[in-house]
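Input (structure):
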């Protein structure tokens, strides 16, 4: 009788196995020497037997079908099969005589009707064990999900607490993760540069490995870091401590979607406006070249015949400066506007009570909608895909509301920081015009608008609403912006019940018109 050895462990970690492959082989070789068995081949694999499809197992059966061996030596029947298909194949090969014998150091078997009956019972017990284990795991997952605990390995920045069965924040790594999000949100760094920054900061995976670019992308795309997580296609609100705010996460997603990082080309140092404009006639990109000591910009004319002519860089610079001067705000007036905003902040804090009530009321409405959505899903009124999508949307809005409540309770007013940043950016244009830094001008134009066009040697673009209003006001007054400037228009409805409008969509009026 010729035998093949088959040793298997599942794909789980080594410490959770009853016997490693090496330990099984040692026991089987000792048993074969004791029983004087002829061993002609050995097969080992690290894969679960819960489902059919093991490569080494199939290779062993093919070896037996070719009559190159007569029997199998394994540690226990559950090493051979934990599913009905693989177990049935073994029994069928015994029935057809392709397998003449099975040997197990821990299990009795004879190739008789009684022996095959006992083998079937052993296979059935193995399948029952794996099925029962799966159900226990699923039950544990459901319990964790109800508590808002992610039922898996914690991502980098968090640690699995095996004592409390919760997920705790890893403060050392969490601070580095937060820095990575803030760097990427600026739009000045690529994923590769963020990966290098993580490496320089000493951030490593739980296994101590350097983070690859793909891993960094997964980190920056993971909602877990602001309080939500996905499990099997469904979104849940976690009870773990967030590392970042949802606003910072959303900003990173915008940067990733639009590839908002600044590409540092050597040519951009010579041609600061290249890559900013497109041709207004044919839509092609605008390129640049140097002729007789001057930089000229022209259409690439790659799509069709285009009649646009060259334009000198000095001409473009004068036009850019002309727009910047329209929206520039002197330092003295900037300080006055910022002081008025400080007064608005004090006034807004007095009205925060009503805002908090509105936010808390919206959270209650979201909770009620989630209950109705779950009922509709259980009653098969909505599909699983619709349920998952709507649940993610509602939970995302709930996180936003909680963050707004936190900002208000901590004494901040959400619209004031964008307002201050806007006013400071107007003052920054004065410095740009004075310094003449064309690269900084290009960066500023990209930040405040879109659709930058060059046609008939003239530039145009679509500025964001606050900058558009500032330019229009300056043109109407035929001078630079002067104080009084704008302030946020008062509204009896302290908070819109629908989605928030961004700062650029808000309306403004002169400070002198506002009530005190």
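Output (sequence):
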């Amino acid at each position: 009788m010729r035998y093949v050895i088959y040793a298997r462990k599942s794909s789980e970690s080594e410490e959770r196995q009853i016997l490693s492959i090496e330990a099984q082989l040692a026991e089987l070789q000792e048993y074969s020497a004791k029983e004087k068995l002829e061993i002609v081949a050995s097969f080992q694999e690290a894969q679960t037997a819960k489902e059919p499809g093991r490569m080494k197992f199939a290779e062993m059966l093919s070896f037996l079908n070719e009559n190159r061996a007569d029997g199998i030596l394994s540690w226990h029947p559950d090493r051979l099969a934990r599913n009905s298909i693989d177990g049935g194949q073994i029994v069928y090969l015994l029935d057809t005589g392709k397998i003449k014998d099975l040997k197990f150091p821990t299990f009795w078997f004879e190739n008789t009707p009684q022996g095959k009956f006992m083998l079937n019972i052993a296979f059935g017990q193995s399948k029952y064990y794996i099925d029962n284990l799966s159900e226990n795991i699923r039950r544990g997952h459901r319990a964790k999900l109800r508590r808002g605990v992610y039922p898996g390995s914690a991502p980098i920045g968090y640690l699995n607490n095996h004592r409390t069965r919760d997920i705790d924040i890893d403060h050392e790594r969490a601070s580095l993760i937060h820095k990575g999000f803030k760097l990427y949100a600026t739009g000045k760094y690529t994923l590769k540069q963020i990966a290098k920054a993580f490496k320089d900061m000493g951030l490593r995976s739980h296994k101590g490995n350097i983070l690859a670019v793909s891993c960094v992308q997964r980190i920056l795309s993971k909602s877990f870091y602001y309080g939500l997580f996905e499990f099997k296609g469904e979104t849940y609100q976690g009870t773990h401590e967030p590392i970042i705010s949802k606003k910072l996460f959303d900003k990173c997603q915008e940067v990733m979607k639009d590839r908002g990082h600044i590409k540092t080309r050597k040519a951009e140092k010579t041609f600061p406006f290249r890559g900013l404009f497109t041709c207004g006639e044919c839509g092609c990109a605008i390129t640049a070249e140097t002729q007789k000591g001057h930089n000229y910009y022209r259409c690439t004319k790659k799509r069709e015949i285009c009649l646009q002519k060259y334009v000198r860089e000095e001409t473009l610079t004068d036009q850019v400066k002309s727009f910047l001067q329209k929206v520039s705000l002197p330092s003295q007036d900037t300080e006055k506007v910022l002081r008025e905003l400080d007064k608005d902040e004090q006034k807004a804090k007095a009205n925060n009570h009503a805002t908090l009530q509105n936010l808390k009321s919206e959270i209650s409405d979201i909770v009620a909608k989630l209950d109705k959505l779950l009922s509709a899903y259980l009653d098969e009124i909505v599909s699983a895909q619709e349920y998952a999508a709507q649940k993610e949307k509602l939970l995302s809005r709930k996180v936003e509301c909680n963050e707004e409540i936190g900002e208000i309770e901590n004494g901040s007013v959400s619209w004031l920081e964008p307002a201050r940043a806007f006013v400071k950016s107007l003052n920054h244009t004065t410095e740009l015009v004075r310094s003449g830094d064309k690269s900084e001008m290009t960066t500023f134009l990209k930040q405040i608008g879109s659709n930058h066009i060059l046609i008939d040697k003239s530039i145009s673009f679509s500025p964001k609403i606050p900058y558009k209003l500032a330019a229009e006001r300056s043109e109407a007054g035929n001078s630079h912006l002067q104080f009084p400037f704008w302030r946020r228009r008062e509204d009896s409805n302290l908070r819109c019940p629908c989605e928030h409008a961004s700062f650029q969509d808000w309306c403004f009026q002169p400070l002198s018109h506002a009530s005190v």
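Notes: The radius of gyration is 34 Å. DSSP finds 16 helices and 16 strands in the chain.
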